[in-house]
Amino acid sequence: MQKIISYPVSLIYYLLFGFWLVLFHPIQWICLNVFGYNAHRWSVAVLNWFLVRSTHVLGTTYNVKGFENVPVNKPLIIVANHQSLYDIPPFIWFLRKCHPKFISKKELGKGIPSVSFNLRHGGSALIDRKDPKQALPEIKRVAEYINKNNYSVVIFPEGTRSKTGAPKPFSVNGLKMLYKFAPDAYFLPVSINNSWKMTRYGKFPLGLGNRLDFKIHQPLKISDYSFEEILEKTETVIKDNIKN
After folding, report:
1. How far apart are CA 224 and CA 19, in angstroms?
2. What pTM, to 2 d.p., does this model score?
3. In terms of C-beta density within 10 A (0-12 exposed, 13-18 middle, 19 or more buried), how is residue 207 classed?
4. What letter does residue 109 receive in the DSSP assignment?
5. Predicted confidence (pLDDT) per residue in 73-123, tens digit
6. Which runs of consecutive H residues, i.e. helices, occur in 106-153?
7. Residues in contact with 12: Cβ distance below 8 Å, sequence separation at least 6, in sequence order
């Protein structure tokens, strides 16, 4: 029954989703080219407020815990499990003060209104996962960028989304580059639950009535740990808090 009801509701949601992306594309361009970085950053944050609120049409709610664990004015490497594309707008909105950038596949850098523009011009890394010679220098650039400016970068080290919520093994290469080239940063582990239920039927229709849980854990200062130690602690705390 829920799946049947979801067809018209999902259509309404996608119309809203597309409307906000198209509307904010020129807004982003104006903010960046006329007013500069901070105006562009806030235009992206406001866009993602609308994207988050639009999911309320689907009965989606959000529960974010652990804001007190976010270091202030420090570079952050936000490490999270990945369950769906609906993981991303909450990071941009709820952690907007951290200037979040993303490690993203290069295909998202073109063809999507607002999203592609922000990935290309907002400081994120667009990588070819099949080409380490291209990907690793991009990640190095972002690491140095966040380290210099006290910004944050979000990385999903599982590489691909979990369609059932069950965690996948972490890939170490991107994390190792961030660890090496952002020596002043903190790893900030985040566990995500229930986001996969948004796409339990695929892209259409969408799941209804889900509560997406984001839990921000204790930060780990890079200078206090070897890479192997910080990787183990980060992966363990994230996976221990995933509820299947």
Report:
1. 46
2. 0.94
3. buried
4. G
5. 999 999 999 999 999 999 999 999 999 999 998 999 999 999 999 999 999
6. 115-121, 132-149
7. 57
